[in-house]
Amino acid sequence: MTAAAIPVRKPGLAASLLELTKLRISGASTFTAAAGYIAFRRGADAGLATTLLGILLLAMGSSALNEVQERHLDARMPRTWHRPLPRGEFTPAGATAIAVGLALAGFLLLYLVHGPASAWLGALALAWYNGFYTPLKRVSAFAVVPGSLIGALPPAIGWAAAGGAVKDPTVLALAFVFFIWQVPHFWLLVALHAEGYEEAGFPTLVKVFGRRRLARLTFTWICGTAAACGLLPVFRVLGTLPALLLLAGAAFWLLVGSLPLLGKAELDARLFRRVFMNINLFALLLTAAVILDPFLAR
């Protein structure tokens, strides 16, 4: 029996909508945008709510559009065959209409309430993800490197919505850390699901290097992510001792937890899954440090 033939309980409309729009991933992007907003304002105000709502709507629209674009490939992967479009819970036209509606609502909210800079940065994020990165994944195993701009944009959108200039070195330092982080984050996912990606027709670095060399390359990028965190106090993204200790502790914990990637023992799914969860938690702690810093300074 194939994966697609396994009977599963059909979710309700609300659950299918949340899955179509990848609310968990969209919410994570929105959380990093909060760091950019609060870092500029050095606190929170009513504008934070409209900023986060606008970014969340854009992210959900972009995610839904991505599922339309990759519906045929998703149907061939064990990790994604159960998504709403492969299972026929939405038509491509219906899902596209939902995606466009959400993205347009998010763009207009940012534009009308926070000005053109944040709105056009949001539009750039959607265009880069759906118009550049999504098709590039089908032809290059290295697509995530330029595609990681997606991880850097949400903090910049939050910063711009708060009134900051995008060329400010402070927000560029913060965005750079998330840019570097995105690469090992995705490669760990590839190491976990390489066979599924390849079956669907995506080129992977497991095919290019093998898992052991990919594990070492991923560890190198994890080291780069930890090292890039040193830019944050230098460019005054954060400066209180508790926030610095939280950031330093998170970076050290990530490095130590990733050391098994260099080991000679067999690399199995449990290791990649553990490091993948670690790097996600690191991003959460990094964002929390940036958000808490202004309040700790009072």
TrEMBL record:
Cellular compartment(s): Cell membrane
Membrane association type: Multi-pass membrane protein
Superkingdom to which the source organism belongs: Bacteria
Keyword Transferase (UniProt): yes
Pfam families (alphabetical): UbiA
Catalytic activity: heme b + (2E,6E)-farnesyl diphosphate + H2O = Fe(II)-heme o + diphosphate
Tagged with keyword Transferase: yes
EC number of the protein: 2.5.1.141
Pathway(s) annotated for this protein in UniProt: Porphyrin-containing compound metabolism; heme O biosynthesis; heme O from protoheme: step 1/1
Segments traversing the membrane: 46-69, 90-113, 119-136, 143-166, 172-194, 214-235, 241-263, 275-297
Keywords from the UniProt entry: Cell membrane, Heme biosynthesis, Membrane, Transferase, Transmembrane, Transmembrane helix
InterPro entries in alphabetical order: Protohaem_IX_farnesylTrfase (IPR006369), UbiA_prenyltransferase (IPR000537), UbiA_prenylTrfase_CS (IPR030470), UbiA_sf (IPR044878)
Its biological purpose: Converts heme B (protoheme IX) to heme O by substitution of the vinyl group on carbon 2 of heme B porphyrin ring with a hydroxyethyl farnesyl side group.
Family membership noted in the UniProt record: Belongs to the UbiA prenyltransferase family. Protoheme IX farnesyltransferase subfamily.
Misc. remarks from the entry: Carbon 2 of the heme B porphyrin ring is defined according to the Fischer nomenclature.
Listed name of the protein: Protoheme IX farnesyltransferase
Organismal lineage: Bacteria, Pseudomonadati, Acidobacteriota, Holophagae, Holophagales
Gene name as annotated: ctaB
